[in-house]
Write a sequence for this structure.
């Protein structure tokens, strides 16, 4: 069964450094998402992406965050200048069609980001 | 009011018990509803979509009540392996899915 893949599984970075998290969505999916989950807390929406542009973003997704689909397969999340509070699990997800169509999203197994 | 609300639990039930979770949502125009399961430090995994007429998958039954704006998940004959956090996910509008805080279930031998 096709799946969403994320790399790396664990990233340790010094505060203030830039980090790029990578995701390969399921190949015939058109909508892509990033979420974060701080340990012990709920899954929080960051951004959705469709047709090579951001569709929606949350208040968390401020100027230090950006997303890109640099080629036909990868979908990346960049955090420009990391803060201690960026430490979390970051999940990528994809869905075949948009959220209102009834198609579910499928998640990668996440990247654990630890900021020192 | 939060977009999606769940009772966080925890629910501790004996093996073989039946347990039910509810989830309320704020937007009556919501279109898509799902239950996901999340194990500790793992990704959410789709358990089932929720359809207007209700749907069943083995021991799991999901129902939608549009009038009262809630969805429910019923687990019959609970197994130890059902222990997890159950996430209610709703597409309220636009291109975003909204997550509940999750309901923690522990099935006890």
């Amino acid at each position: 069964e096709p799946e969403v893949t994320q790399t790396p599984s664990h990233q340790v970075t010094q505060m203030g450094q830039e980090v790029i998290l990578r995701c390969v969505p399921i190949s015939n999916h058109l909508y892509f998402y990033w979420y974060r989950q701080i340990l012990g807390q709920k899954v929080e929406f960051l951004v959705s992406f469709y047709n090579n542009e951001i569709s929606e973003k949350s208040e968390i997704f401020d100027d230090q965050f950006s997303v890109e689909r640099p080629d036909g397969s990868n979908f990346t999340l960049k955090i420009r200048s990391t803060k201690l509070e960026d430490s979390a699990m970051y999940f990528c997800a994809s869905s075949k069609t948009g959220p209102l169509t009834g198609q579910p999203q499928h998640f990668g197994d996440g990247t654990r980001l630890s900021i020192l | 009011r939060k977009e999606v609300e769940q009772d966080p639990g925890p629910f501790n039930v004996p093996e073989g018990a039946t347990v039910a979770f509810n989830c309320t949502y704020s937007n009556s125009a919501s279109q898509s509803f799902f239950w996901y399961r999340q194990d500790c430090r793992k990704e959410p995994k789709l358990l089932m979509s929720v359809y207007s007429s209700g749907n069943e998958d083995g021991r799991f039954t999901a129902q939608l009540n549009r009038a009262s704006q809630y969805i429910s998940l019923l687990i019959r004959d609970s197994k130890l392996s059902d222990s997890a956090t159950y996430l209610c996910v709703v597409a309220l509008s636009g291109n975003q899915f909204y997550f509940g805080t999750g309901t923690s279930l522990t099935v006890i031998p």
Chain A has no helices and eleven strands. The mean pLDDT of chain A is 95. Residues 52 and 68 of chain A are 8 Å apart (CA to CA).
